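Subject: complex prediction, re-run

Hi both,

The earlier run crashed halfway through, so I resubmitted it with identical inputs.
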Amino acid sequence: MIEFFQNSIDTFNNTHHIIQLCILLTLLLIAAIIFSLLYLKNLRDRLKIKGRIESTYQKKYASDLIEYLYSADGENINPEQQKKVDYLTKCAQNPLKRKIIIKTFLKLRNEISGETADAIQNLYYQTELIKSASAKLKGKKWDAIARAIKELTQFEIKETHDEIILLINHPKKEVRNEIQKYLVKLFRFDGLEFLDVLESQLSEWDQIQLLEILNKFDNPHIPNLGKWLASENKSVVSFAIKLAKLYNQFNVKDDIINLFEHHDPEIRIQAISVVSHLGIYEAVSILKNNLFNRNLDEQIAFFKMMEDMSTPDEMDFIREFVNHENFYIRISAMKILNLITVDTDNTFRININDTELIIDNVLTKAS
Amino acid sequence: MNFSKKIVLAEDNSILSTLLKFKLEKEGYKLLIASNGKEAVDLIENNNPDMILTDIMMPFISGLEVISHVRNKLEMTTPIVVFSSAGQEEMVLNAFNLGATDFMSKPFSPNELIIRIKRLLQ
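This time it finished cleanly. Structure:
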């Protein structure tokens, strides 16, 4: 055996340097592969054990939760329930156990409503889990803050509002997004107050998410949108226009008219587009007066809006655009003329001098 | 009196199943729990329950397949209450087309479920 190793070392020493390098690299690679395999096996075993521990604890906490809920016999907490509260409070001191307890509570709370859901929320307070979530809000890790806000949203904890609103301009988008959802889910339209102080831009996706949450609430109590329509933040203005349209806020017509002179062309176009939905007839003459000073997209938006807002008095004005160089303006102008002249004369007549359009009477009769 | 009334519950959320088991047994019903559609079909075939409560989304066999099996293969007229989540409106319509009796949208109140069960089993 020793001789074999001695011969191998001698052979290695006598070979070319490049071959020596290749052999060394191969050995290194084999060592790395063996190390990785061992590491992965160890990791897999640890994850399996962790999963088994989590599963065991989850079963235990689920059983404790059910017993807590089942033993409720009135508004006040009974000794049996207090025992469970004390036990869960003690367990919640450990981060892993706290995570499992929260996961267990949410697994049930997301599926039920009414008294039982309220009881789970009470248990969240009693086990002092709210304290750990509030503490995370003051931390430096953005992901922990976002998770804490999400947890508070899921348990519908309104008490942390003042702490959370302070983070509304957090540099991380994920945190801001969780805060916005927290405010709107828990405080409905009143939660939109964050728009007063929001410095970052609300993305289209954020806006869709917020509108979807608001859409679930019956009897909407819409706050005054005027201040948001005059906001310095472009995305807030855009969102306020969408709210005005969705909830038919005719009372903001003056603010919408003011937006025709907004510095951002996208906002101007959005404001023009909402005119027909809200039926702001006074906006038509304002837009007509300086139509030529507006860019092409605004002009197209104007004509699109006029398809619903035009009156017979505007016939001469519209007729001027029938031969406009832009296709969309031309089509809109024709549509409008066709609509407003439906009871008077037919604007579009078949040119009977065009031989291609004359119906062959002989062929028609024959068929 | 109600102890003879057997209810099969097909629900993959074990905590919700246990809670409903406690609540319904307190009301005098016998609850048979299945954690997936396949188990639910076996329980229904072997126990001939008085009512079936089923979630729509379940492993192996969905709630819709359970309803279809009960109505078309077993030809049972047992009342079936379907649990649906937000965004499953289309599936609820399919469930009614297949023969579901009633539906409850999650999150639902267990007390409301008990009232509905009582009404349907009257």
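Residues 14-26 of chain B form the longest helix (13 residues).

- K.
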